[in-house]
Amino acid sequence: MPKKETADSVQAHTEAKLQFYTKYLERYLQILLVAQGINKINIYDLYCGAGQYSDGNTGSAVRAVDAVWAAQVKNTLRKAVNLHLNDLNVEKVANLRGILANKESAEKRFSISFSTFEAFEFLRKIAPELPKQDSQTRNLLFIDPYGYKDIDKQSLHTVLSSGRTEVVLFLPIEQMYRFRNKTTDDEVDNSYVPLKHFVEQFELDVASICSEKDFISALEAALSFGGKYYTASYSIRNHTGHHYGMFFITSNLLGLEKIIEVKWELDSQRGQGFTGNDQLDFFLETDRLSDLRGVIVDLVGSEEIDNRSMYEFVLKKGFRPKHANEVLRRLFDDGLIHTVDAISQQRARKGSFKLNYREFKTDRASIIYRGGSGE
Ligand SMILES: C[S@@+](CC[C@H](N)C(=O)[O-])C[C@H]1O[C@@H](n2cnc3c(N)ncnc32)[C@H](O)[C@@H]1O
């Protein structure tokens, strides 16, 4: 198994993980605290740790509390937020109770609850309750284990299926990748049984996986449960050059847009991952936009596509609408695409691409993209 944080300090890759989680949490709260039709938000941190490292850095539990407090300025509708902190280690949870003793607020409707279950046992306990929740409740689960052995695909599927739950999952990839080929025989050495089980659960075709990054991509695809959910991944490279994967699963396209914003905020040049090397390289972003241009040209060339499906397509490719607007503007200027108003069928106003969640949620397209200059 990958090394535990024996030094009890926050290394660069751990900081990258915590940033990914908290930046998403901040966006999640900002949206839900003002959204109509939502009145309760549950955040579950299933492997919450002790809250503080000996180097003074804080862990996910304390950072989540800070994020909830920071978001309270937006909470003018006094929506209820519960942060549930679980860790198998009783001492860690006792420590957290101490650190967080004064952080709840009945007036703000912010509560913190604790438990010391095995994480997936806890998940199996709450899973039957989620579909019974009021439709105005939303849940965010943060799953940050030391390894992959506990991960139970069926439990993840059950909690996601209510459609009101999003999952952020952190997994060490190196070991899984290194020993992937040990899982292909019918009979495997005892020490590889958990890995074999993991590979089989997610139906990973290990023969076609040739790098740790490939492993992350294959897992990202598997976590979509056959395309039922939107998924995104973010790779985190540690100082030895090996990778961890952050995975995000949601049934909500706005959730996907927000996680993609986080990816691009943390990796401004590629929107893909943390490498520990923050040298700016303008060409990386240019390369990525040229990839996007290629897939958009192919798409528009092969079918008639409207603004709602373009918005979804771009996000599923890991880009933000602002990237797509930039690419579309250039294609327009180069005479490679033109746009038509979906209702009047007349040429649309120049530069009006309407790629956003509000448009996506309407049941009618407003813009159609077509190949060529349309002259
Ligand atoms: C990677 S650490 C989590 C770190 C934490 N998220 C933070 O930011 O400080 C994993 C945690 O899982 C706990 N743990 C290990 N096995 C567990 C299990 N099966 N169920 C729940 N917690 C477990 C450990 O005690 C440890 O605190």
What tags apply to this protein structure?
single chain, 375 residues, alpha/beta, Rossmann fold, 2 domains, 3-stranded antiparallel β-sheet, 13 helices, disordered N terminus, binds S-adenosylmethionine
Q: What's the helix-strand series?
A: HEHEHEHEHEHHHEEHEHEHHEHE
| Structural class based on helices, strands and sheet pairing | alpha/beta
Return the CATH topology of the largest domain. Answer: Rossmann fold
Give the CATH class of the largest domain.
Alpha Beta
Query: Helix proportion of residues, in percent?
Result: 25-40%
Bound molecules: S-adenosylmethionine
Into which percentage range does the β-strand content fall?
A: 15-25%
CATH superfamily of the largest domain: Vaccinia Virus protein VP39
Q: How many strands, what sense, and barrel or not for the largest sheet? A: 8 strands, mixed
User: What is the first-to-last residue Cα distance?
Assistant: 62 Å
What is the residue-averaged pLDDT?
92
Task: Please identify, by name, the CATH architecture of the largest domain.
Answer: 3-Layer(aba) Sandwich
Backbone shape: globular
Domains, number: 2
Q: What's the arrangement of strands in the largest beta sheet?
A: 3-2-1-4-5-7-6-8
Runs in which pLDDT lies below 50 for 5 or more consecutive residues are 1-6
Q: Using only CA atoms, what is the Rg?
A: 22 Å
What is the tally of beta strands?
11
What's the tally of helices? 13
